[in-house]
Amino acid sequence: xxxxxxxxxxxxxxxxxxxxxxxxxxxxxxxxxxxxxxxxxxxxxxxxxxxxxxxxxxxxxxxxxxxxxxxxxxxxxxxxxxxxxxxxxxxxxxxxxxxxxxxxxxxxxxxxxxxxxxxxxxxxxxxxxxxxxxxxxxxxxxxxxxxxxxxxxxxxxxxxxxxxxxxxxxxxxxxxxxxxxxxxxxxxxxxxxxxxxxxxxxxxxxxxxxxxxxxxxxxxxxxxxxxxxxxxxxxxxxxxxxxxxxxxxxxxxxxxxxxxxxxxxxxxxxxxxxxxxxxxxxxxxxxxxxxxxxxxxxxxxxxxxxxxxxxxxxxxxxxxxxxxxxxxxxxxxxxxxxx
Length: 339
What we know:
Helix content: 10-25%
Strand content: 25-35%
Low-confidence stretches: 52-61
Radius of gyration: 20 Å
Structural class: alpha/beta
Shape: globular
Largest sheet: 7 strands, mixed
Order of helices and strands: EEEEEEEEEHHEHEHEHEHEHEHEHE
């Protein structure tokens, strides 16, 4: 029999990490015909979870991996005991996003809970080659990186392309791994010498310290064949790094706008910056279930293992996990064990 209550964390108020509240016996939503009850085993924290100024009561934006505990009468895609992952944007099955798509941790509850109920179409089977902790990193960061590199058919990554990544967060690290598996040259940026060494061990061909080299965009362009520029920029820094990305990108290349880790409020390029660079600037909001499933096949086929930070937090240490990530101590994905 499926459980009726669950332990969980929610966001209540606008007082930073103190808005995170723990509940011992929160009710679990009723099971409709096409719903699945899942038991979460591991969750991973995303940067999107950090600016928690949402007045509504929501479970926060983490990605998770789980086991099916029960199914509705008409569920056909999964059975009890199946290992599953959740789709970040529920309802985004394939093709372009629509207004009906709902993001977990925002419009609907996220994953800081032991049990949860989801429509069967909002779940994806786990890759066979990964464990729960590794798989918990995929739904947001990995799918975003995959969509950035492969989601635009006419500009999809090809062997011999050059990819520029920023920093060592989840999206950037996955982009490094996917680009290398696809036969691309990878140029990575970081401000840490120790993280630069880890990027090199991961396979990055070139690593630029952006603090030592503030004109890193031009430096990256000069590292490409014929100094023509990079094919893809994984732009997670935001407005304050976009000018350098425009210097790095090649004619007809793509800048994938994903985050704003470098902050906002600085002088940012506008219309003319994009026009004179003759490139495409594309916003990326994670990806569809179809892209998720394609990515999982690539992960299994290429033996890709997600990079997980050595620090693993317990379910009762959620506030500490948020602080750890806020201070950018992590490398790759940060995970929490659900017990």
